[in-house]
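Step 1: inspect the first sequence and its C-alpha cells.
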Amino acid sequence: MADETENCAFCKIVAGTAPAYRIHEDELSLAILDINPFAKGHVLVISKRHTQWWHELNADETASLFKTANLVANKMMKAFSPEFVLMFARGRRIPHTHIFLVPTFRGDLLDRFFNALEKIQESPQDLARLKDAAAMEQAAQQLRSA
C-alpha cells in the first residue's frame, strides 16, 4: 500500500507535494480543480485516505466526501449559474476515490452524453426487462439481504 500511495497523484496532492488548485478541505476530504476540465469550474472531491472506490470508505469519510461535494456544488451554482451540477464517482483511471462535480448547461457535452445514455437506458429489451415488477422486487430483495 505504501508504494500505491507514493505513486498516487491524489495522495501527493493531499500530502502537499504536488500542486493543486484547492477549493475546500476538511480533515477527511479535499476539493480541487480538475486539471483536465469538462467545464470551467470542474472540481474533484477526493478522500484524503487512499482507497480506490468510494464505497470502501468508512462512514465518516463518506459523510465528509458527500458533505464537501454538496458544499462545493452550491458554490458552483453561485459562481457559474449552471442548470445543474453533474456528479459521478470514479476510481478507475486514477485508482483513488474521487467525485467529479461538473457545472452543466443544457446542450453542453455532458448534457448531450447523459441524454443519449438515458435513451439507451429506455430502449433495449434486456434493460426493459429490468423494469418488470418481479425483476425489480428480486433486485430490491438482493440489495436488502446483502
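Step 2: inspect the second sequence and its C-alpha cells, then contrast the two.
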Amino acid sequence: MEINYTPKGVCASKITIKVEDGIVTEVKFTGGCSGNAAGISSLVKGMPVDEVIKRLDGIKCGFKSTSCPAQLAEALKKSLQ
C-alpha cells in the first residue's frame, strides 16, 4: 500500500510511505530538512507500523507543536483507520 500524506505544521510538503504486510518499506519526504528526513526514512525502514507510531508520535520540532516524525506517525495512524 502506498500512502500519500500532506503534513501540517512542518516544513515538508508531502510524505510518501510504502507499507507491505504491516511493515514500512519506504518513506520519502518532499521538502523539509533533507538530512533529518533521510535519517528518519532509513531508521523506520523495515519497522512495523505500530512501532513507528509508538516511537514518533508526539515529537515536537523547536517551538512547533509537531514535527516531521510526528507527521509520519499521524499519516500511519490515519492509514490504519
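Step 3: confirm your contrast with the notes below.
The CA atoms of residues 21 and 59 lie 26 Å apart. The longest strand covers residues 12-20.
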